[in-house]
Design brief:
Blueprint (H helix, E strand, L loop, with lengths): L1 H38 L4 E5 L5 H6 L7 H8 L4 E2 L5 E2 L7 E4 L8 H6 L9 H5 L5 H16 L10 H18 L3
Parallel strand pairs: 1-4
Antiparallel strand pairs: 2-3
Helix pairs in contact: 3-7
Length: about 180
């Protein structure tokens, strides 16, 4: 009889302990849930060079994916990869930003635009190359001008750099979602 009483007391004590532990765990989970917004992980991209950056266009051969394509891709929309095939991210990014190089921003695009002043100059025409070898040689030459601190002023002119900077801001604003 005494064993049964002790068993019931122990069982009751065990049940109370388990219930109390369960309540403490739930309270801890509730407290954690309240803190979760400050501890959530967000995924995005901040180091993206599009075809508007000289290194991406000439150095890596990205001749088609500009800032607009990056933002579409980051939102989960399909785009054409520079290799010619369609790509789509499986889950949209929480945030993203293009980080183009300011040096020679949009220079190749301006050279290829028949309405731009640059496209009508000898320098602009020299940026219209036909082979990968020419692209690499142009990239090396323009990189050296920056490294030696002697940029080609025609490629840094406000009608080139300013035009593409303004477009870059407009595209970022267009896709901005707070």
């Amino acid at each position: 009889m005494q064993n049964r009483v002790l068993f019931r007391l122990n069982l009751g004590s065990t049940i109370r302990t388990l219930l109390l532990a369960g309540l403490l765990i739930q309270a801890g989970q509730a407290a954690f849930a309240q803190q979760a917004p400050e501890r959530e992980a967000y995924f995005g991209e901040t180091h993206v060079h599009t075809s508007w950056s000289l290194d991406s266009y000439l150095g890596f051969g990205n001749t088609i994916a500009g800032p607009e394509e990056f933002y579409k891709y980051s939102l989960g929309q399909p785009i054409t990869h520079p290799g010619g095939f369609t790509v789509k991210i499986t889950k949209p990014l929480d945030w993203g930003a293009t980080t183009e190089h300011a040096e020679y921003l949009g220079a190749v695009q301006a050279a290829l635009d028949p309405d731009s002043q640059l496209s009508k100059t000898l320098l602009g025409k020299s940026l219209k190359f036909g082979s990968r070898v020419e692209a690499e040689a142009t990239y090396k030459l323009l990189t050296v001008t920056m490294l030696k601190n002697h940029p080609l002023t025609d490629l840094m002119a406000p009608d080139v750099l300013g035009t593409y900077w303004k477009r870059l801001v407009e595209i970022a604003d267009k896709y901005y979602q707070p």
